[in-house]
Each structure stands twice: as C-alpha cells, then as structure tokens.
Amino acid sequence: MAKEIKFIKEGIRVVFVEEYLKSQFQRADYSHIEVSKTPLGIRIIIYANRPGIVIGRGGEKIKAITGYLRDHFKLDNPQLDVKEVNDPDLDAQIIARQIASSLERGLNHKRVANMTIKRVMDSGAVGIQIRIAGKLGGDKSRTEKFMQGYLQHSGETADRLVSKGKAEALLKPGKVGVHVKIMAINIEQEMKSQKEEQQKT
Fold it and tell me: How large is the C-alpha radius of gyration of the chain?
C-alpha cells in the first residue's frame, strides 16, 4: 500500500509541475513534458514550438525554473531539457493555445476555427475537432463544435493516435474554453508502421 500511495503522489506532483510549466511558457507555444528518473535525479523534457523563449537569454529562464521546481515541488536534482515540436500544426495543445490567443485579440471564433481546421488538415492531419465553450457574442454561454476528417474517439487507439489540448481565453464576458483533438496518423498507417517494426526485429 505504501508503494501505491507513493506512486499516486508522484503522479499528482507531475500534474502540478506540468500545469506550472504550461502557465509559464504560453508565449513559447508550450506543448507537453516528458518526465523520467535518472541516476542523477529527475529529467524533464519540455516540448515547445519556440524553445528560445523557454531557455531565455543566456539560459536565465531555464535556470530560474529549475530552481523553482527544486525548491517548490521538492524535486530531486531536476534536469531540464528543451526540444522543439516537430510539427506544431499537428500538436493539439499548441493549436488550442493559438486559438485562445486569437479569441483574446478579438477575432471571430467561427473564422478562427475554420481557418485553423484548414491549416491543420493541410498539414496532413487525418481529422480534427475543435470545441469552443463560453459566452460567444451573447449573454448566454453555449458550445460550438467544428470538425473535419476522421477521429477515433475512444479506446487504446484513440489514446495513442489522438493528440488532445485545452486552453482558456480570457474575454470581457468571461472565460472561454477551447478543446482540440487532432488525429495525425490513421489506423492503417499505424498498423503498417507496427508491421515494419516487427519485421526489423
């Protein structure tokens, strides 16, 4: 039981760390983190579209964040690495933040959603869904969905192939939530890749 409690606590701590890093690096088009234990401590890889903002001039930003993670979250010798996202137009978290930023600049949500869908599909996505919820040009809150292509909505395949992201836009009437799902690889491609990997081994 003690091991299970420790495992749960570690999982909760990782969630809080990710929420903190997301709040710090919105301007960098933050995507996600990967956390692993090494003989030297805790290794955290930060994925972002604009890694230079994460690092800061002369590495000052990353040094400050490392110190905060060590002192505030009690991480054992945190080692931060920053990597650029290969294709930001297929990363749901980056897309969600970009949509929220566009809404905060006063752009029409339908126009933003439709332009985003075109850009994502042109980048090779199999399917995309955008859900925007809140006070969208009226007194009452409502939810609007925008979809194109094919998405796997449940199961192990969806967990593996569908990128998910969420962000909030702070508008005068209140908060607007943005949820994005992007499927960049179809099931046939995934099965072909798995078969090729098996043939190599």
Answer: 19
Q: What is the pLDDT of residues 152-162, one digit of tens each?
A: 887 887 788 89
Q: Give CA angle at 99 (98, 100), nearest 5°.
A: 90
Question: Which tokens in the block code for residue 19?
Answer: 């929420």
The DSSP element (H or E) to which 137 belongs, if any, is: none
Please tell me whether the overall predicted TM-score, pTM, comes out greater than 0.85 for this model.
Answer: no
Torsion of CA 113, 114, 118, 121, to 10 degrees: 60
Distance CA 82, CA 76 (A): 19
Residue with tokens 């179809």: 186
- Single out the residue of 131, 22, 13, 8 nearest to residue 74, CA to CA: 13
**Which uninterrupted H or E stretch holds 68?**
helix 60-72
